[in-house]
Amino acid sequence: MTLVDAYLGALKLMESTGPRSLHQTAAFIAPNPALVEEHELRAHLAAADPNDQLRRALSLRLAIFDHHAEDAAWTEDTAPNTRERREVILRILDVEEDTAVLLNGLIPIANLDEPIVIAEKWTPWYTESIKRSRDFYWQHYSESLQAAPHLDADAVAALDKATDRVVERLADPTGAEAYQAKGLVVGYVQSGKTANFTGVIAKAIDAGYRLIIVLSGTTDLLRTQTQRRLDMELVGQENLLRGIKLDDEAALDATDYVGKDPDWDRFVRHGVRPSDGGGSDLYRLTKKSFDYKSLEVGISALDFPKRERHLPFFDPANLFAGDSRLAVVKKNSRVLEKLVADLNKITTRLEEVPTLIIDDESDQASVNTSKPKPLSAEAKKKRSAINGHIAELLRMLPRAQYVGYTATPFANVFIDPNDTADIFPKNFLIALPSGSGYMGARDFHDLTLDIPLDERTVENSAEKAHVRIVNEDDKERDADLQKALDTFVLTGAVKLYREKLGHGPFRHHTMLYHVASQKDAHREQRAQVKEMWDRSGYRSASCFERLRSLYEKDVFPVTRRPDGGVAPSTFDDLVPFIGDTVNRIEKTGHPVLVVNSDKIEGEELDFATDPHVWRVLVGGNKLARGFTVEGLTVSYYLRQSRQADTMMQMGRWFGYRAGYRDLVRLYTTQALFDEFEDICQDEEFFRDELRQYAPFGADGEPQITPSQIPPLVAQHHPKIKPTAANKMYNARIEQRRTPMKEPSSGYPLISDGTSLQNNTRAFLPLLSSAVAHPEVLDLDGRLFNILSTRLTNEELVSILSQLRWGKEDSFRPDLNFLRQAKPELIADWHVVLPQLKGQDAQVTIEGVGPLSVHRRRVINGKLQAKSQPADRSLVQPIANRAGSTRGGMLLYPMVPKDAAAQGELSLSDVVMAFTLFLPQASGATDRKLITWATKDDSLPDYALVSV
After folding, report:
1. 757: part of which helix (H) or strand (E)?
2. pTM over 0.85, yes/no
3. How far apart are CA 541 and CA 576, in angstroms?
């Protein structure tokens, strides 16, 4: 036994005991206490790299202790992820001061976002003792994640916590009364939703759920990918082999993976047959290459025998002695019909079987699209086929829990909640944070960047670094496609360069060409891309001048960013890796692969069994949802949609890009890029709204429930709706009491001169007062030129009441709150107009001035009228003072970026944008930031929907 073995054993013991003396526990395990001296531990950790086994194990255990809720006695009521919590942990671990200093340096406290939970009240049952005593599958799954080099300890600890939030809101599988919970888990596109539901399944099986049904998208490609991943990370070798010896070649031929999958050695090992190690044996009803089929041999595969026949199956005496079943099923009507038919043969037993239904991409195909009217009897009889089968499963399985997973939740939250047979997430909605290393909207769009447009570079702008605009003219697009292909080759060469230096490996390297959804077009597009590839000259030095220019002007500068990786300082140093890159891409003779339901050149895309996929992928819907495109580095995207959720799902460039995020490029048109930015703002707005209303009120009741979520959905783009649903709200927000108000999505279009004129005129008295009070403020050494004034709350409400909005309800709930606020809550407002430097920024508006106008981009007719984060320090501290009754307002007269805004401007030239910071005294005493009113008292008080 080594020092590492002893300390690993000590940390393993703490999984069930919580923190305890680290050295004493290791000394107890070691054959000789001298083997584990603490100074030797420090020496080992100081010399170890971040992937050292002991360092990773310590990181994970500290992260879990850091994240633990205050309910355990050892926490001494310290808040999670705080310096006070870490001090308690290190004191209980009883480490020497030098060791504590080292651990804090090597393993800092993580500042991880919590999942956002919107839920009805529920009866807690998933206690810490249950979790610790029944953790067979979760323990092995989490250990497999710990061994993955691309995941750090904080990510594993965060997953542990996030999956707890889901499992605890399911019904107790041993409960005497059948209860059916329905929920929705919202992640970002390609952000780890599969990892989350794999963890949920593991914990659910450990807790007693015995039938697991995973509805996995609508394509074989996605179903197969999900099946393999669950087999690898959850089912494990022992359940797959079922006692087959690894030298029994004849028997192994009938298995899925042995000798066929290059990653077989990475499949989780339980060490024993699960039922012999305190777990439940897990039987698969589907295989990697076979979706669910009718059980021809007999229905026994779906049987749940009882050890104690006089007790129901959900009794612990039967439940924890029973086997589990797993079916990974494509959302196809015929497939689901077979599953329902087989389950119908054992109805009496199903009434007692705790079941978990995971619906991956739950907004696709699952939602009922055949309801002509909400709440009508006819609507409940007539359902779309797949939705009907899901409803039938829920009817047959009264102990079934339904959990949908999606990155685009709008179709789900617009389901009629009164339809008890449908999949509306009536019990909970959980929004997951993006994990460390995720490339999302803010890595491609400068949503809140506080730098003038003309000062943005690849060093300070995500947009400049990763986005390349394609010419709208079809005749000019060949040059842009050539650059995309060249970038694909250059970034592949950089990956090989990094591998040689010990970074990586980079198993797959792909480029996505997504221009159309029609299969007939894909062959033609493949031929076009292949033709351009063939005349690109990658096999000779004739292409070097072109590649050199692109490398020096584009690829290399982005690698110099703080999040960049190593790269050759000169193109000549990269040249030796270009030939190998081209060889890999042309390995099959076809550098371009079509991915749709047709088989092109007899090939299918399989990232699992192919050791290296270095290809240009041409495709449509099959690559547009759920399916993970491994190694995706360059995206050439020109396909349009009128639905926000459809477009967001096509954003395959979002995701984890460990070791090569600086190499990622998106080629698209300016119009499409702007539309994506609007959609991303819809998503961020939705999450921000949920985050504000997630805490319970002072009365212990939730501020909002899932049925009240639809009115929180925004639509920044005038033509792209959040989903295909036609929304009809019966509940509407009456007051919004949020401490910050920035109604940027509600301003009129710049073409609506009448509304802009009206709004500017309403603000003229305020502008006149402010220009009389210019001053320069020094905040922490930074100078701000401002105009300012002060007015009562009544005066401000008078101005705001005159405004016209792009959407009627954009500001109405906020204005309602301000209008009813008494002077002891909101007495007055300090108004600041940030001023720009230089005389060319000074104008007058209807004779009022001089003052600055701020330029913003126009996207789809709307000015991107948001405040600058740095300006908020001018007023926010005034509003945030304890007991303050004075609010803060930032006011920006704004014009389009390219407008000729000089001299005298008319009222209709300007968008009057503002941000409000409510005074501290105005905070809701009941802690409820939102109140509701019912439009029609004869109907229920939730959002009614006609889908």
Report:
1. helix 753-771
2. no
3. 12
